[in-house]
Design goal:
Length: 248
């Protein structure tokens, strides 16, 4: 039985002071349940959030990491550095990183290998842009991203993976995929995993939907059979909104 996982992705929002204020408020609202909750924050907020969420069960994730173990990569952060401060998750291959920072399926795959090596659980993002959906190519695009991401990973690693299906046209636009569209693609992603690793593995993978998830549409999306949670951008910035999604 997969435990739903609702993760917030703060992107480049909130100072440490604001992050701690969020955590103090969110902890008052959050009750441990069958739903896992987490926040993926900018690097400078991570240590404070790990401390603030200690003992609550709320997970902390980063939004990116380098694929090398260490080296002369000015401005970068390694998986080992994240692990050392108690970070458990890392978003990898978000469409904004693919679009603005030259992230490719190859770098995503390298990052997944390094993340697992350092006990960081990846939340790997895939999804098509609008032109690809309009051209009916969304399944091919997502399959290519998934096959590229999974290259040479072991069955155990894949079983512990979180995949976020985020159609790029639904991110920050207020335009959500319909529950049926989101469900269909999440089911397809599971099938792609099953074809490579078998159903024992594919049935364990948490597959989230992301793209304009809000308190008023979370229940419908999260109740779809193939959707195991959400990666939430804008609505994760306000504790009162985010808790409604976690409590869908
Ligand atoms: O990582 C989160 C997604 O990019 C979704 O962002 P959004 O909820 O603001 O559309």
């Amino acid at each position: 039985m997969r435990k739903p996982f609702i993760a917030g992705n703060w992107k480049m929002f909130k100072t440490t002071k604001e992050a701690v204020a969020f955590a103090d408020e969110f902890k008052k609202l959050y009750e441990q349940s069958d739903v896992l909750a987490g926040i993926c924050a900018p690097y400078t907020q991570l240590a404070a959030l790990v401390e603030a969420f200690k003992g609550t069960g709320i997970k902390v994730g980063a939004q990116n990491m380098h694929f090398e173990e260490n080296g002369a990569y000015t401005g970068e952060v390694s998986a080992d550095m994240l692990n050392e401060i108690g970070v458990e998750y890392c978003v990898i291959g978000h469409s904004e990183r693919r679009q603005y920072f030259n992230e490719t399926d190859e770098t995503v795959n390298k990052k997944l290998h390094t993340a697992f090596k350092h006990n960081i659980l990846p939340i790997v993002c895939v999804g098509e842009v609008l032109e690809e959906r309009d051209a009916g190519k969304e399944f091919d695009v997502v399959k290519t991203q998934m096959v590229g991401a999974l290259k040479d990973l072991t069955a155990d690693q894949v079983a512990s993976l979180v995949v976020a299906y985020e159609p790029v046209w639904a991110i920050g636009t207020g335009r959500t995929a319909t529950p049926e569209q989101a469900n269909e693609m999440c089911g397809y992603i599971r099938k792609v995993i099953e074809d490579i690793y078998g159903d024992e593995v594919s049935e364990k993978v948490i597959i989230q939907y992301g793209g304009s998830v809000k308190p008023n549409n979370a229940t419908e999306l999260m109740n779809m059979e193939e959707i195991d949670g959400a990666l939430v951008g804008g609505a994760s910035l306000v504790p009162q909104d985010f808790i409604q999604i976690v409590n869908f």
